[in-house]
């Protein structure tokens, strides 16, 4: 029996899993760390603590199972700057860290607004992680002068095990502003600013390196691209995935079109598949909007959040159609709020809230859904019966399925290097589909 260790490094939770050949979880461990502070007093990942946990978790796993391989999927928009001795030169800056307005204006004045379209990256400040390198160059030139390698976080996790520096395409493609989607190469600004030579050579995400104890070590990949892999390996017909939670992100991994300026203005962006094909995506900060409004309904009707969330679907309910002209379907969602006390009960108020959210979701998804008939919904809203019933009603010409892939990102990271650790085939029933 063969086993693989996968690290799934999220912004909040850090997880490690051992999978067997059937992709069954045999062992797992998780933790979270208190954030550290960077030199400006802004919160950031405690990279040293993360490194120590990764190394100790590896030792724990290898004593329990005869591992053949290790791989990594992590959140994106995070860069590690190394000097010639492989020493980390800066904190792992938070992608939510505010970006200096004057520096941003300088960048766009020099390279033009077209850079957003060609790199399929809306103006997102530090979330455009390539601009973190640009910022370091101009704000801390003495530090930047010592930089010899710039690694994306998943590739740095791999580097800890192999000391071989690599770049994977999914990390480059996640709204970094580094990749020119039109020409299929780094954007010209990366070369002109003297950054390209600091980025290690691109390697396929399916590649492995020989690491500690002779194990096959994957080079790592971005968690969103990794989470799509189980679907892409299972379903041959085109589909759209709406991954829900704090963010509801609509992924279209079958698009052939480049983002338009209008799509960029409406919070659309592109990721890259492991085969370098674009994944068009639209984002909606629906989870926070939902939770805030549920809190209001709970308080006004003097019932618990749990009672509000337990509201069953009433097929006879008729609510008020949301006027999308009253909303900016961007993030955070801004618009005219409702007076929840105008309703007969908290159940009617919650029906209206979900109806409004579905209208916002359909508007957001419409930017990228194109003519694909099959829609999968996973995550929290996929388990919300009221949301799913209303979404199906709002999209009568589409097949709308609830899907469940436990630990999809981790499974994707194991799948991408399947041939290097697993002599069997990929199991057929990794994904649970529910309609109705």
Automatic annotation (TrEMBL):
<keyword id="KW-0418">Kinase</keyword>
<dbReference type="Pfam" id="PF00370">
    <property type="entry name" value="FGGY_N"/>
</dbReference>
<dbReference type="InterPro" id="IPR050406">
    <property type="entry name" value="FGGY_Carb_Kinase"/>
</dbReference>
<dbReference type="GO" id="GO:0016301">
    <property type="term" value="F:kinase activity"/>
</dbReference>
<keyword id="KW-0808">Transferase</keyword>
<comment type="similarity">
    <text>Belongs to the FGGY kinase family.</text>
</comment>
<dbReference type="Pfam" id="PF21546">
    <property type="entry name" value="FGGY_C_2"/>
</dbReference>
<protein>
    <submittedName>
        <fullName>Carbohydrate kinase, FGGY</fullName>
    </submittedName>
</protein>
<dbReference type="InterPro" id="IPR049382">
    <property type="entry name" value="FGGY_C_2"/>
</dbReference>
<dbReference type="InterPro" id="IPR043129">
    <property type="entry name" value="ATPase_NBD"/>
</dbReference>
<dbReference type="GO" id="GO:0005975">
    <property type="term" value="P:carbohydrate metabolic process"/>
</dbReference>
<feature type="domain" description="Carbohydrate kinase FGGY C-terminal">
    <location>
        <begin position="237"/>
        <end position="419"/>
    </location>
</feature>
<feature type="domain" description="Carbohydrate kinase FGGY N-terminal">
    <location>
        <begin position="4"/>
        <end position="208"/>
    </location>
</feature>
<dbReference type="InterPro" id="IPR018484">
    <property type="entry name" value="FGGY_N"/>
</dbReference>
């Amino acid at each position: 029996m063969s086993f693989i260790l996968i690290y799934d490094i999220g912004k909040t939770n850090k997880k490690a899993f051992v999978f067997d050949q059937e992709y069954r979880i045999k062992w797992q461990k998780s933790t979270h760390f208190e954030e550290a502070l960077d030199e400006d007093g802004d919160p950031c990942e405690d990279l040293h603590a993360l490194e120590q946990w990764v190394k100790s978790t590896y030792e724990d796993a290898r004593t329990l199972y005869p591992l053949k391989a290790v791989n990594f999927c992590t959140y994106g928009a995070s860069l590690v700057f190394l000097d010639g001795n492989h020493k980390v030169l800066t904190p792992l800056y938070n992608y939510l860290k505010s970006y200096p307005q004057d520096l941003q204006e300088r960048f766009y004045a020099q390279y033009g607004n077209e850079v957003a379209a060609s790199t399929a990256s809306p103006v997102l400040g530090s979330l455009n992680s390539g601009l973190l390198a640009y910022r370091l160059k101009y704000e801390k030139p003495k530090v930047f002068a010592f930089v010899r390698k710039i690694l994306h976080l998943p590739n740095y996790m791999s580097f800890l095990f192999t000391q071989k520096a690599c770049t994977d395409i999914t990390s480059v493609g996640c709204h970094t502003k580094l990749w020119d989607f039109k020409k299929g190469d780094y954007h010209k600004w990366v070369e002109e600013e003297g950054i390209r030579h600091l980025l290690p050579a691109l390697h396929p995400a399916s590649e492995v390196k020989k690491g500690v104890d002779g194990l096959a070590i994957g080079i790592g990949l971005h968690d969103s691209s990794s989470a799509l892999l189980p679907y892409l390996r299972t379903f041959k017909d085109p589909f759209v995935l709406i991954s829900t939670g704090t963010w509801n992100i609509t992924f279209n991994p079958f698009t052939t079109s480049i983002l338009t300026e209008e799509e960029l203005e409406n919070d659309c962006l592109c990721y890259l598949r492991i085969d370098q094909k674009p994944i068009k995506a639209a984002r909606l900060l629906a989870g926070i909007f939902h939770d805030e409004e549920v809190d209001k309904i709970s308080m006004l009707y003097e019932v618990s959040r749990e009672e509000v969330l337990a509201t069953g679907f009433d097929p006879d309910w008729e609510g008020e159609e949301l006027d999308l002209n009253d909303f900016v379907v961007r993030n955070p969602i801004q618009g005219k709020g409702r007076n929840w006390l105008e309703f007969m009960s908290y159940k009617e108020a919650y029906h209206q809230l979900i109806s409004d959210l579905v209208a916002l979701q359909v508007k957001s998804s419409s930017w990228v859904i194109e003519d694909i008939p099959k829609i999968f919904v996973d995550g929290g809203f996929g388990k919300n019966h009221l949301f799913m019933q209303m979404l199906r009603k709002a999209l009568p010409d589409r097949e709308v399925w609830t899907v469940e892939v436990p630990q999809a990102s981790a499974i994707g990271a194991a799948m991408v290097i399947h041939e290097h650790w697993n002599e069997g085939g990929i199991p057929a029933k990794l994904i649970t589909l529910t309609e109705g």
